[in-house]
């Protein structure tokens, strides 16, 4: 086997999407992306071409690893190998290339997420120095139905994302994982409910993907969170499996509004660099 390793270059998304889809074709949650959708994902998650690597076998793209860096925290935003080329060490090759490039760029740690039960991936990352840090949980729910009081004051206003993130941080957003960190949330649209609640997420059709919801500490316990969800005006709300299990207040609120836990939980794993 002749394997060649190189970093990504602008425009590679045109063929990388095909490799991504082959790599995830037998995944527990198959993910299919065209080149445009992959490019959008890479932009939203801060993927850098110089921190992302592809292994080619006899000229054919076989394995990839996408790396991102914000401050001194790096993250693997996707890693996979074409089923035809597995068990040849290619996943380890691209992973280590991303880790080494991230360290050279100033990262002090690298994090990633792995579905609970994906034992081959968990084993790969543990062999390469990653440790399971905590479980991340997701939900899905139908928005609360607005009562008369909600309808009287139910409007959501557009809010600048950076301003919303500053408010979120001031109200309390403790130790978030990579995709819920302030620098990640700044890339998503934000809404405000009368300055008393902030919502961060993205609407896709009749579904809203919710990444953050917070209420002013002095106004909590008065139904403002439920009112903000009702005001979204969508059929369903999806909360990706990114919420740490120790965020007990968040989980209690979601249970109270009828959210159902996503059965696909995932581990946040971290590797400290330079230790």
CATH class descriptor name of the largest domain: Alpha Beta
List low-confidence stretches.
148-152
Residue share in helix: 25-40%
Largest sheet: 13 strands, mixed
Nearest-integer average pLDDT: 92
Number of strands: 13
Strand content: 25-35%
Overall geometry comes to elongated
Predict the CATH topology of the largest domain: Aminopeptidase
Corresponding CATH superfamily of the largest domain = Gcn5-related N-acetyltransferase (GNAT)
Radius of gyration: 20 Å
Order of helices and strands: EHHEEEHEHEHEHHEEEHEHEE
CATH architecture assignment of the largest domain: 3-Layer(aba) Sandwich
Helix count, per DSSP? 9
The helix/strand class is alpha+beta
First CA to last CA: what distance?
A: 34 Å
Provide the domain count: 2
Write the layout of secondary structure elements.
Layout: E1 3-7, H1 13-23, H2 35-44, E2 47-57, E3 60-70, E4 73-81, H3 90-104, E5 109-115, H4 119-127, E6 131-141, H5 148-152, E7 157-159, H6 161-171, H7 182-185, E8 190-193, E9 197-204, E10 207-215, H8 224-230, E11 236-244, H9 248-256, E12 260-261, E13 266-272
Parallel strand pairs: 4-5, 10-11
Antiparallel strand pairs: 1-2, 2-3, 3-4, 5-13, 6-11, 6-12, 6-13, 7-8, 8-9, 9-10
Helix pairs in contact: 1-2
